Amino acid sequence: MAKKKRNKNIKKKRNFLIENYKLSWAYIKESKDFIYIIIGIFFAFALFGFLVPPPAELEEAIMNFLKELLEQTKDFNQLQMIKFIFLNNLKSSFFGLILGVLFGIFPVISSLINGYILGFVALKTVSSEGFLVLWRLLPHGIFELPAVFISLGMGLKLGTFVFQKKKTECFGDYFWNSFRVFLFVVIPLLVIAAIIEGILIFLFG
To answer: How does 49-68 read in b/e, with b if 16+ C-beta sit within 10 Å?
Structure first.
């Protein structure tokens, strides 16, 4: 009897996870235009950062930021690195979603800045090691970038509730659907991304 009840509870939990996972992807599909906008902004500024050298002051600020990051993580073991990457990406994704409530401004700015920094880093890396190094960098973003794009896209959509007729109803709908996506899609992607990046950093530096 106890075994039957336990199996029933396991089945119920499995059905709960599957149902919420399906609902999350349905909402992502429904919100795809907002995600595409974020992707467009990100890659436009990544290209800009790659093709147009920044002013000396901005370059210095970015380089100082990257040096501080390297200094902060230089003595980390693999597990610490994975944890650091996951928590950093989790924080960025979460705030990118939640702060989207302010007219969607924060997700756009976040996409712009991160895209530009990626382009700048790619430029510096290619300048010192050649274009082939970009293939080595590619695996770092396979899971991380989709998770970030989805979060920022959800945040951008969340900010549009102010333009709807039934503002309170739309806000509740957008918020809870976005939160479900964050729990059932974004977090698992970030976990996978952190594990892959942590391993690759220790393998290739």
So the answer is: bbeeebeeeeeeebeeeeee
Q: Nearest CA to 96 among 192, 191, 190?
A: 190
Asked if 86 contacts 194 with a C-beta cutoff of 8 angstroms, the reply is yes
Residue written as tokens 């994975």? 82
Q: What is the pLDDT of residues 1-54, one digit of tens each?
A: 555 556 566 666 778 888 998 999 999 999 999 999 999 999 999 999 889 888
Residue 160: domain span: 32-204
Residue whose C-alpha is closest to residue 97's, from 169, 19, 183: 183
How would you label 80-89 residue by residue, b for 16+ Cβ within 10 Å and e otherwise? ebbebbbeeb
Q: Position 12: which residue type?
A: K
Rounded distance between C-alpha atoms, residue 84 and residue 81, angstroms: 5
Q: How many domains does the chain have?
A: 1
Q: 167: which 2 tokens?
A: 């503002």
What residue type is assigned to position 87 of the chain? L
pTM of the full predicted structure? Answer: 0.87
Strands (DSSP E) contained in the chain are: none
